[in-house]
């Protein structure tokens, strides 16, 4: 995990604009487009899992869903019903290949050639490592972990995936979005000089809340409300804002050496919101002195902003997920404006490229490493805000703070539980710092 190693890696890979195209070589199992079926297992049957499966089936390849796994039977059944209604006999998942429970992923992986990992992200390291060990290609949603031990597990599995020539795509879909690819290619070719500063944002009104129901165990409640618990979600700076943080790392071609910031629970502070903050503001400092400011918040009823801007020695750039990209020179003259006409849907494109590579027997995608490092950037940002300290990248990588439960069952207790008033402990900068780093 040495600084030199990670920086050299990103410098070499970032120029390829998201799809890390390696030398096309024979993959362990070769599929002929239009003839051999690519068998897919879905692990995590919520809304994102359903959407990812739609995207896989719309990739243009001969795909069959053969196994499904989820901790909750109702999630699995609802997703199965939706997929059968849409794709008919392409959904070949009898009851014997519907796996319910925390360990269901182990059986589902065995049935497939490709595994789609879309559970809450806290489970991602174990699921990814198991899929790679079994020799499966992987699509996994972002973020790829919620703590630093999980990041290390993903990085180890990423090495194994490379050795086995297993394609791995991570759902940081801006890497597959045309306006980002075109603009960042121009930046890396020197169109606006060296990037010296930037600002990235995900300011929105927040996400769903699922009230506690009678009879739920604490584990089930937290699982149903996974967004509000760090072991499952990582806080929204990790789960959601990782998209914008990843753009900063992609444009810089490296990762920050230190992060400091501030955050709090200003509005979403009741028992329904678990332990997470509702706002973060961090500064990411890179080894060349560049500083990127990052802001994310979940405040209702105020202005929203989800985009990225960067300033460089010869100009500046504006980017957004709405297919916008504009570059200006140092005098303010527009030098590139992206035309969004005909641009493919980025969620669809990442699956199209992944399944085409698998069908053609090519090894082209090793997204796990940059997915892990951008996730880690968000985790370090969370730690910096929770503790009030400047957190150095290389020191953070040594952290052994494991926030995952000791046991996975609905009768087991997570590490964070509510007090007598139903409120969860929330990080206070400067207090109990050893809990976080």
UniProtKB/TrEMBL annotation:
Domain (GFO/IDH/MocA-like oxidoreductase) spans: 180-299
Domain named Gfo/Idh/MocA-like oxidoreductase N-terminal: which ranges? 38-163
Cite the InterPro entries for this sequence. Gfo/Idh/MocA-like_OxRdtase_N (IPR000683), Gfo/Idh/MocA_oxidrdct_glycsds (IPR050463), GFO_IDH_MocA-like_dom (IPR055170), NAD(P)-bd_dom_sf (IPR036291), TAT_signal (IPR006311)
Q: Which Pfam families does the UniProt record give? A: GFO_IDH_MocA, GFO_IDH_MocA_C3
**What is the designated name of this protein?**
Gfo/Idh/MocA family oxidoreductase
Q: Which organism is it from?
A: Sphingobacterium tenebrionis
The organism's taxonomy opens as: Bacteria, Pseudomonadati, Bacteroidota, Sphingobacteriia, Sphingobacteriales
